[in-house]
Design goal:
This protein has 92 residues and is an alpha+beta fold. It has two helices and four strands, in the order αβββαβ. Strands 1-2-3-4 form a four-stranded antiparallel sheet, covered by helices on one side. The protein has one domain. 14% of the residues lie in helices and 35% in strands. Strand 2 and strand 3 form a beta hairpin. The longest helix has 8 residues.
C-alpha cells in the first residue's frame, strides 16, 4: 500500500523535486514532506506537507470505500518548516 512518487505526481498535478525525511515522522507512508514544482511555465517551487490516507477493512465495511488500499484522501499545505523536526526547509 502507498503511492509511488510518480503516482503522487499524477494525483496532485505536480513534479516532486526532493523529499525531506526525518526520524520524528512516524507515519512516512501517510505523511510526506516534499518539495514540488506546481506549474512548469512558472517553475514555482515550494515545500508541501502531504497527508495521504488509504482505505482499510473498516472503511470498506462501512461502505466508505470499495476496496482496501483505495486512496481515501490526499491533501497538502505549503510549509516552510518541517512540522516534525522543525528544520527550516527554505534554507536548504
Amino acid at each position: 500500500m502507498g503511492l509511488t512518487n510518480k503516482e503522487l505526481e499524477e494525483e496532485c498535478g505536480c513534479e516532486i523535486l526532493s523529499t525531506h525525511n526525518c526520524e520524528e515522522n512516524h507515519l512516512p507512508e501517510h505523511l510526506r514532506i516534499l518539495c514540488v514544482e506546481l506549474d512548469e511555465s512558472d517553475s514555482q517551487q515550494q515545500w508541501e506537507f502531504f497527508s495521504i490516507w488509504f482505505a482499510n477493512k473498516s472503511d470498506v465495511a462501512a461502505g466508505e470505500a470499495e476496496e482496501v488500499g483505495e486512496l481515501m484522501n490526499l491533501s497538502s499545505v505549503k510549509i516552510n518548516y518541517c512540522p516534525f523536526c522543525g528544520e527550516n526547509l527554505e534554507a536548504g
